[in-house]
Write a structure and sequence with these properties.
Blueprint: H1 5-27, E1 32-39, E2 43-51, H2 52-58, H3 71-76, H4 78-88, E3 89-92, E4 99-110, E5 113-123, E6 130-135, E7 147-154, E8 157-163, E9 169-173, E10 188-190, H5 196-208
Parallel strand pairs: 1-7
Antiparallel strand pairs: 1-2, 2-5, 3-6, 4-5, 6-9, 7-8, 8-10
């Protein structure tokens, strides 16, 4: 039975605190990153948040090895960071590869934790019907404990994924196709949000802590 609008609002009020608490607890780990991904007609935006300590240690950005990054250290390492991300974060639509663009790299506070934000854009020549995300950042013998909590907005659907060494691949279909035909991967935790309002508020709540 479909939920009425009032029921959806009540469900929202119940679920949002639980979602925020779950995400906030995990955010403090130096090995946990976050991803906010939006699937559009023929392009995707991907806001990648990596722990400052992990970036400094694993990518050699922390030149003085004091456990903190400065804007200057980050600026001098932008090219190497971009290279590592492009090599270890593979986005496809079917068999097609997009034009990649890193629009911004900066130090931010995200979920009350120091993070490096890497804002990415992926543009395809044709509309996205199926997409795949292969995430290998820090997972290739660099940090076996690394995880990334990803939230994907695909039209009216918002889905949460936990990316780990064992589950680092996401497959999905655009809302232009029949989503019910798409099998759920093991690392998927679809929130089953039918209402567009619900998905918008959930995504906005996720971003409030940036």
């Amino acid at each position: 039975m479909k939920l009425t609008f009032f029921s959806k609002v009540i469900t929202l009020l119940i679920c949002i605190p639980l979602f925020v608490h779950s995400m906030n607890v995990k955010a403090y780990s130096e090995s946990v990153g976050h991803s906010v991904i939006i699937v559009n007609d023929n392009w995707m935006t991907y806001d990648l948040y990596l722990p400052e300590l992990s970036v400094g240690k694993n990518l050699g950005v922390d030149k003085d090895m004091n456990g903190y990054l400065t804007k200057e250290e980050l600026r001098l390492s932008e090219e190497s960071i971009e290279k590592i991300v492009n090599e270890n974060l593979i986005i496809r639509s079917g068999e097609k590869k997009p034009v990649r663009k890193v629009s911004n790299i900066e130090l931010v506070k995200h979920w009350n934790a120091p993070m490096v934000l890497i804002a990415l854009e992926y543009k395809f020549n044709e509309p996205i019907h199926e997409y795949s995300i292969e995430y290998n950042i820090f997972l290739d013998q660099i940090d076996g404990k690394h995880q990334n909590q990803a939230i994907i907005q695909n039209g009216e659907i918002v889905t949460e994924y936990l990316i780990t060494t064992e589950n680092n691949h996401i497959d999905g279909k655009s809302t232009n196709t029949d989503l019910d035909e798409n099998p759920s991967p093991e690392n998927e935790g679809e929130t089953n949000i039918g209402a567009f309002l619900f998905s918008k508020i959930l995504l906005h709540t996720f971003r409030l802590f940036t």
